[in-house]
Amino acid sequence: MGRILAIDLGTKRTGLAVTDPLKIISNPLETIPTHTLEDYLRNYFSKESVELVVIGYPKSLDGTPNQMTPLVEALKKRLAKVFPEMPTTFVDERFTSKMAMQSMIAMGTKKKDRKEKAGNLDKMSAAIILQTYLDRL
């Protein structure tokens, strides 16, 4: 019984989140430099049982693709090639960054810390993407 891992792809940083072993709760995992994603996943998959990768699918507010959409689609194709046994799926990621920021504010994170810790925002966004997927199950 494996976990589900979520990816919030960015041009510089990528946020990651993972479920608990029972696939009930989404937890922020890490923020990594985007260029290290493939190596990170290879290492993570060798240590942890993962049964699905959920990728945040970027869209404009009106539902049309935005500038990140082709990069995310290319990532899905690349993951299928590098990890052919690992299924992937997309989840609409509109508003996840805003929701992550609101969560940080609700937790009492100071404005200065929110600006300095952009990596926290990325992994929290990934956790929201993953929780969205879990809520739909």
UniProtKB/TrEMBL annotation:
Domain of life per record: Bacteria
Is this entry keyworded Hydrolase? yes
Q: Where is the YqgF/RNase H-like domain?
A: 2-100
| Gene Ontology process terms (BP) | rRNA 5'-end processing
EC category name: hydrolase
In alphabetical order, the GO MF annotations are:
hydrolase activity, acting on ester bonds; nuclease activity
Q: Gene Ontology terms, cellular component aspect?
A: cytosol
The main location class comes to cytoplasm
User: Which controlled-vocabulary keywords does the entry list?
Assistant: Cytoplasm, Hydrolase, Nuclease, Ribosome biogenesis
**EC numbers:** 3.1.-.-
Q: Which InterPro entries match?
A: RNaseH-like_sf, YqgF, YqgF/RNaseH-like_dom, YqgF/RNaseH-like_dom_sf
The yes or no answer to whether the keyword Nuclease is present is yes
Pfam families according to UniProt: RuvX
Q: Where in the cell is it found?
A: Cytoplasm
**Similarity-based family:** Belongs to the YqgF HJR family.
Physiological role? Could be a nuclease involved in processing of the 5'-end of pre-16S rRNA.
In Swiss-Prot or TrEMBL terms, this protein is called Putative pre-16S rRNA nuclease
